[in-house]
Amino acid sequence: MGQVIAVVSGKGGTGKTSFVSHVGLYLADMGKRVLCLDCDVGLRNLDIALGMSDCAVMDFTDVLEGRCGLEEAMVPHPQMAGLYLLNAPSLLRRPIDPAAFQRMLGQIRLRFDYCLLDAAAGLGTGFRLAVGGCDRAIVVTTTDPTSLRDAQRTVMELGALPRGRVHLVVNRCRRRLMRSLHQTIDDAIDTAGLPLLGVVPEDEALALAMGRGVPLPFLHSDRYAGRAYRNIAQRITGQRVPLLRIR
User: Fold this and answer.
1) Domain range list for the chain
2) How many CB atoms are located within 10 Å of the residue 85 CB?
3) Highest CATH level, class, for 3-236
């Protein structure tokens, strides 16, 4: 039985979609069968982050409403075996039935080792849809005070998940800026109140990859952010990997 992991953030701009796409790619590269599911209705862009822009014709509401089956709606990645995308709708015709969404997640657990849900930013309907049926949650934050406050508020909304099933990822870390602001990773952990799953450094290669619509592994960039994402993917599978040092 596979795991459904909701990737959430209290605000936009934390790099959550980039996190989902790259961790999904590295999990698939480890031989896992992975589905990346975009839950950001109307503002979907996970396909771009995966280098699969406009590849998907159907979306998850087509599955929920019986217009097609799960196998028809999900699209295989053209370059990474074992990795699939299931898109969010660009326009919502009617409210999403949370019970139907959870039934779909039950089907996904039977077909995949991991399903990464790219939740909508904030604590609205998209957030509740993703966390309502997940097994684990990862809160993605940056080190700026507003992001940390929002992460702390997000954690409060995840109280229904058992202890040890919610983790923190600190993204876009810049050591020099953190020093000038007298911040440390420990401060971020203490503020959010979560165990740390990983730290991802600011990396120009990531901006280049996103601009080209080509994920880091296909730019042959396994340094800095790429290495951090790979380490996090390994930790998700239960491997013991040291935290990446931010230089």
Assistant:
1) 3-236
2) 23
3) alpha beta
